[in-house]
Task: structure prediction
Amino acid sequence: MIQVFTTGGTIDKHYYDANSEFEIADSLLPELLQEANISDPYQIAGLLRKDSLDITEQDRAAIVDAVAGTSAQRILITHGTDTMPETAQALAGISAKTVVLMGAMQPARMRRSDAVFNLGFAWAALKLLPPGIYLAMNGEVFEAGRVRKNLAAQRFERD
Result:
């Protein structure tokens, strides 16, 4: 079984009206996995509903505890892109499990989002990678501790 943890981030943001800002809404992940016709057994648990800039060290500790505490050997974490490398680094002490963090540069609810591609890519990476902590974004896999987000280019790069 694959364990999926959601933490919020842009992938789950929703724009309510023309006068409001994006807010974290209920995750679309169950719907996206169903539309993708994923047949692997999986379980989804929501850990947080936060923009990654608002994730605290206590939140990261809770994510680490959840990953360490699950019996699943393969774990997918949806996460905001701004601090995804920091959370991946916090997970670096976990061994014998394959953990992949993924997110989106545009909300999944938007027509031109990278969320669906990133989810499919991360799902495949999760099934193929050996134990370790990884980020899977926009067709590339990065190891924890060796990646940074390039804000100007809106992509991840090897550090």
The chain has a mean pLDDT of 89. The chain has four helices and ten strands. Residues 115-128 form the longest helix (14 residues). The radius of gyration is 14 Å.
